[in-house]
Design brief:
With 251 residues, the chain is mainly beta. The chain is built from three helices and 18 strands. Strands 1, 2, 3, 5, 6, 8, 9, 11, 13, 15 and 17 form an eleven-stranded parallel beta sheet that branches. A seven-stranded parallel beta sheet has the order 4-7-10-12-14-16-18. Helix 2 links the parallel strand 1 and strand 2. The chain is globular, with a radius of gyration of 18 Å.
């Protein structure tokens, strides 16, 4: 089977896994107090908690509009498939000191996850890039935009990551994850802002995507297998890299 045919087959199988269930339970963040122009951190965590615990599949919806979002961990396992549908733009705190963890939005220990919506995760990274040269004087670690940790059978489509302070997407310990029509937007001077970094993961497909950033377009780290990249446009940075290896014994 050719590479393109294999990627399409995997994508269709994942899509079938989501659409074969009954209509999902919908949890709109506005029902939990979220309003456009306000901080919706508590609302999205509450919606996710109920959706994750509900029988059958759950869909958490962020409607159109601009919202401010603090650090969130969206954690499983959940009772059924989960769908995070971001129709609005989510904006992170500007200062790195306002982040208490390595990632802004982390999705962890989930099976059959879908992230979609057509809108953006905006990290306001300009201040952080200026800090990149300050060495030990800057003690606060720069956070990643989106973290996918130990997730399986997932689709991320029609999502945009803007101006991350560090790596835009970090994939760790995951299996069967497809990025479709995924976009990264950051200027050429954005330092250490890999588009998608993959580590210790298997069956990662990146297709029909546009990744324009200041560092690696896609970086493939140790322990990764069956990574397929098809029809991806890279801009500004260092292209697709297989590397950053040798730091740990037996890599």
């Amino acid at each position: 089977m050719g590479s393109k045919a294999h990627v399409c087959t995997v994508y269709l199988l994942l899509l079938f896994a989501f659409t074969s269930e009954a209509l999902p339970n919908t949890f709109d963040v506005t029902k939990y107090g979220a309003k456009a122009g306000s901080d919706i951190t508590k609302a999205i965590l509450s919606a996710w908690k109920e959706g994750c615990a509900a029988a059958g599949s759950g869909k958490v919806v962020v409607p159109k509009g601009k919202y401010f979002l603090g650090v969130v961990d969206l954690i499983g396992p959940c009772k059924g498939a989960m769908h995070l549908q971001v129709e609005g733009t989510l904006v992170a705190p500007a200062k790195a000191s306002q982040h208490s963890k390595d990632s802004w939005v982390t999705l962890r220990y989930l099976d059959r996850l879908k992230v979609s919506g057509g809108r953006a995760f905006d990290r306001q990274g300009e201040i952080a890039w200026e800090r990149a040269h300050c060495g030990d004087r800057c003690k606060t670690p720069l956070p990643i935009n989106l973290g996918f940790d130990f997730v399986t059978n997932n689709i991320v489509e029609d999502v945009t990551s803007i101006d991350s302070k560090q790596i835009h997407v970090n994939v760790l310990g995951s299996k069967n994850l497809t990025f479709q029509r995924f976009s990264v937007k950051a200027p050429g001077h954005s330092l250490n802002t890999d588009g998608i970094h993959i580590g210790r993961s298997e069956g990662i497909n990146i297709i029909n995507s546009n990744i324009v950033t200041g560092d690696d377009c896609i970086s493939i780290g140790q322990g990764s297998r069956q990574v397929r990249i098809t029809n991806v446009r890279c801009g500004h940075g260092h292209g697709i890299s297989v590397g950053s290896l040798g730091k740990y014994e037996k890599e």
